[in-house]
Write a structure and sequence with these properties.
This protein is α+β, with helices and mostly antiparallel strands. It contains seven helices and 13 strands. The chain has a 13-stranded mixed beta sheet with strand order 1-8-9-10-11-12-2-3-4-5-6-7-13. A hairpin with a 2-residue loop joins strand 2 and strand 3 (111-121). Helix 3 (71-94) runs antiparallel to helix 5. The protein is globular, with a radius of gyration of 20 Å. The model is unreliable at 1-30, 40-66, 289-293 and 346-354 (pLDDT under 50). Keywords: Membrane, Transmembrane, Transmembrane helix.
Length: 354
């Protein structure tokens, strides 16, 4: 199967992908659009050869099937998808240091907004990473920066001149969760921000399906994550709208490298592209045609390319330098404690550091 990058209403049902609702519900012009674009990366092609086939998964006797026909096959396929996403997060957290370029395209209201940036991480469960992206929408430059030195994780956005700062004390997350961590679990400090948080969110909030395919001639796995109908109903109720929010994805497709770079071999189990699909917007009724109506449209495409292994950079590369002293930051440590199920109620007030 081939996908036309410019036809944003093609999403094959064979691949039966939540980004942050607080952003996707914003309304009003370019500013809201760009904010969604910037935050969709961590919170959601020249013509590509996109051929999906039924093939093996990385888990031995578990076989990927394009259209599971019974409940047992559906559950088996979903479990294989979960295992693969867990393997991806382990590779991101524990693998060697690497860097890549990042490109994101967002389509909305008849416009295409493009962002370019870089991603760099130290790996080896250090939790150190640095992601930066810049977007131009014809009205100005907008930036997103997210970085962590393994102690503090910062997110800075600047949209239409307005600056927002958020911080998470990831070192404290590890300290407070030490007694509740299960063997084999990733340290909490590596699960805040970056691709790991995005992948875990996809796994947590969606129904998953896996298949194999090729991207530019290279074998890949494709994990398709669909927002359950029950969750979609809750989104509609909480948004107070009669129509689905334009930039709220109902489906995410994650393409994962199966063999890595054909020259160096590096990159296996790393994500290569992430597609976000939303419902098709209602359009005025026209003359009847024989065409089958499309259920989804592509709203965002994130691509990682020029991926290469590097020597672990010095920690200074991952330390955030706050040049916005006049801007108050939001401390989100408490929110992540709740998200990870860490209970610190027994701590005395003097022992709480946020």
């Amino acid at each position: 199967m081939k996908i036309d990058r410019y036809n944003h209403r093609i999403c094959d049902s064979k691949f039966v992908p939540r980004f942050t609702s607080s952003f996707t519900r914003r309304r009003g012009g370019s500013k809201g659009i760009v904010l969604v674009c910037l935050c969709a990366v961590f919170l959601a092609f020249s013509a590509l050869d996109w051929q999906i086939t039924v093939a093996d998964t990385p888990f031995g006797d578990t076989e990927a099937v394009a259209e599971p026909s019974d409940q047992a096959a559906v559950l088996e396929n979903e479990e294989a998808a979960k295992k693969l996403l867990r393997r991806v997060t382990v590779q991101l957290a524990s693998g060697p240091a690497f860097e890549s370029k990042v490109r994101q395209r967002v389509w909305t209201t008849g416009r295409e907004v493009v962002g370019v940036g870089t991603y760099e991480q130290s790996g080896h469960t250090s939790g150190q990473f640095n992601f930066q992206m810049t977007m131009h929408d014809g009205e100005g430059k907008h930036t997103l920066q997210q970085m962590s030195d393994g102690r503090l994780a910062w997110t800075r956005t600047e949209v239409a001149g307005e600056i927002s700062l958020r911080r998470v004390d990831v070192a404290r997350l590890d300290e407070w969760s030490a007694s509740s961590q299960h063997e084999g679990m990733l340290p909490l400090r590596v699960r805040v921000g970056g691709w790991i948080e995005l992948i875990e969110q996809i796994q947590r909030d969606h129904q998953l399906q896996i298949a194999s395919g090729k991207l530019q001639g290279q074998p890949v796995w494709v994990v398709t994550a669909t927002l359950p109908e029950s969750v979609q109903d809750k989104v509609m109720q909480s948004s107070g709208r009669e129509e689905w929010p334009t930039l709220y994805p109902v489906k995410v497709c994650v393409v994962i490298s199966k063999v890595g770079n054909k020259e160096s071999g590096f990159g296996k189990f790393l994500p290569l592209r992430i597609e976000h699909w939303s419902r098709v917007m209602d359009e005025p009724s026209g003359p009847e045609t024989d065409e089958i109506p499309q259920a989804e449209r592509l709203i965002s495409l994130v691509e990682l390319y020029s991926i290469r292994q590097i020597a672990p950079p010095p920690i200074e590369r991952f330390r955030f330098e706050n040049r916005d002293a006049e801007v108050n930051f939001t401390n989100e440590t408490d929110r992540y404690l709740k998200q990870f199920g860490v209970h610190v109620a027994e701590l005395k007030p003097t022992e709480r550091y946020w």
